């Protein structure tokens, strides 16, 4: 891995990240990395700048050892010491999502229009979901149908048991970088198939399952805290299994899981906007408490998500 080589050999002198698209067809941030083989300080300077405002850049020192502790030697945005402390706290005694659930990207068909229709028929009996059919704490919209047995699948998850599993958490797999909310997830309680713009979470084949309540897990994934955690880590439009898999899940007792999960159940059945907002705030506050955030840290996350 190139990043690992550059960090371990202390070859980076400075890095500039452009905030916004530099190239029209790009969907990830563009960076400039200045290398120096004589640079031996075990640190480098990092800065972020708007493409049309190059003169106002401000650099921050970054520690190579800190970067080496990240899963993939990724150089995430510097957000100050407050966030550094929060990030360490939410990772403490947490389990990566990938160790709790199998994360599967939906199927790719050989031409959606060849197999998918808008009405359920005898020849198209099976519901199939797109990313746009998923809402934030909303029941999936069921507007498309196909035939699992008669369709030609050329990619994505083709294991039938993934789709048959329920309840399962579904997450939009593509989100525009301009959107404030990076993660939009819901729960599917029916046997629904899904296309490659959706990730599905299913239980692992292990004897130990720390998560009793799927709705509790949804509360964590959809929370303001985890939304900001994810946004600070990953700056691509794709929410891949490897990215989602690093989400730190704090395990708690069965009663707490059920209490938070029950609020999510009520929320997903509510049609009242004011009631939904109050429930979302209550759920978010329960997640803050779960991760032992102080009031100052809570206000930091709320301001960052505003």
UniProtKB/TrEMBL annotation:
Reaction equation(s) it catalyzes: a 2'-deoxyadenosine in DNA + S-adenosyl-L-methionine = an N(6)-methyl-2'-deoxyadenosine in DNA + S-adenosyl-L-homocysteine + H(+)
Keyword Cell membrane: no
Gene3D superfamilies from the UniProt entry: Adenine-n6-DNA-methyltransferase Taqi, Chain A, domain 2
EC top class named in words: transferase
Annotated TaqI-like C-terminal specificity domain residues: 128-238
Entry EC number(s): 2.1.1.72
Protein name (record): site-specific DNA-methyltransferase (adenine-specific)
Species: Winogradskyella rapida
């Amino acid at each position: 891995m190139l990043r690992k080589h550059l960090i371990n050999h202390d070859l980076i002198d400075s890095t500039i990240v452009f905030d916004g698209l530099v190239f029209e067809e790009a969907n990830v941030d563009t960076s400039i990395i200045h290398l120096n083989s004589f640079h031996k300080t075990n640190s480098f300077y990092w800065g972020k700048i708007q493409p049309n405002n190059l003169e106002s850049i401000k650099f921050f020192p970054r520690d190579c050892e800190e970067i080496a502790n990240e899963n993939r030697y990724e150089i995430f945005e510097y957000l100050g010491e407050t966030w550094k402390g929060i990030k360490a706290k939410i990772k403490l005694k947490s389990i990566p999502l990938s160790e709790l659930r199998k994360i599967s990207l939906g199927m790719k068909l050989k031409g959606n229009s060849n197999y998918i229709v808008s009405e359920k028929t005898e020849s198209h009996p099976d519901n199939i979901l797109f990313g746009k059919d998923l809402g934030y704490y909303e029941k999936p919209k069921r507007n498309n149908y196909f035939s699992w047995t008669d369709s030609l699948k050329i990619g994505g998850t083709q294991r039938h048991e993934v789709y048959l599993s329920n309840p399962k958490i579904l997450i939009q797999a593509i989100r525009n970088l301009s959107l404030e909310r990076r993660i939009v997830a819901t729960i599917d309680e029916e046997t629904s198939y899904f296309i490659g713009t959706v990730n599905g979470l299913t239980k692992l084949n292990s004897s130990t399952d720390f998560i009793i309540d799927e709705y509790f897990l949804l509360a964590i994934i959809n929370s303001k805290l985890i939304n900001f955690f994810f946004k600070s880590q990953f700056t691509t439009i794709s929410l891949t299994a490897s990215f989602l898999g690093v989400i730190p899940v704090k395990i708690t007792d069965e009663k707490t899981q059920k209490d938070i999960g029950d609020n999510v159940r009520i929320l997903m059945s509510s049609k009242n906007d004011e009631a939904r907002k109050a429930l979302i705030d209550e759920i978010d506050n329960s997640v803050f408490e779960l991760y032992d955030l102080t009031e100052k840290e809570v206000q930091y996350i709320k301001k960052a998500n505003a």
